[in-house]
Specification:
With 147 residues, the chain is of the alpha+beta class. The chain has one domain. It contains five helices and seven strands. The strands form two sheets. It has a five-stranded antiparallel β-sheet. Strands 6-7 form a two-stranded antiparallel sheet. A hairpin with a 7-residue loop joins β2 and β3.
């Protein structure tokens, strides 16, 4: 039996078009996933700025291993997570929803598969400063290196 599924072809094309760069985002979903060696949070972030990418979503992982806790802490602190909960070493998935901040994404290819990394974070209040881009000699947009 054949089924017609509208949009299936575009989904394959969009997977090659991963968003890379600096974006102002809002946390849309957050799920904790337990794994024996590498527990992690799965995040779905909705792009708010720049306007040409508004509404698109970015999915990524933040690992909760002892070596990776610094990145999770960086994310929570810069996105304005409740300091009282953070002080008790607690992460409430519901409290993450709606938080806003700046994220830098980059692409990594491993074994022929492309992955999106959440490689940097900043408070939403710094978006205006970070959104100002300069063009380098190759003609690509380039932001500051402080994120």
């Amino acid at each position: 039996m054949k089924r017609h599924i509208p949009g299936l072809r575009q989904a394959a094309q969009n997977s090659d078009n991963l968003l890379e760069g600096i974006f102002l985002v809002r946390v849309d979903r957050a799920f904790y996933r337990w794994h024996l060696q590498k527990p992690f949070f799965v995040l779905r972030l909705v792009v708010l700025e720049p306007k040409e990418h508004a509404g698109r979503s970015i999915s990524g992982r933040l690992y909760c291993t002892p070596r990776a806790l610094w990145r999770l802490n960086w994310f929570l602190r810069d996105f304005g997570y409740d300091t009282e909960l953070l002080g008790r070493d607690e992460v409430d998935e519901k409290a993450l929803l709606g938080l806003q901040g700046v994220v830098r994404t980059s692409r990594t290819t491993l074994n022929g598969r492309s992955y999106l990394n959440l490689s940097g974070f900043a408070p939403a209040s710094e978006w205006e400063e970070m959104s100002v881009t300069t063009v380098n000699a190759e003609g690509r947009a380039e932001g500051g290196d402080d994120l």
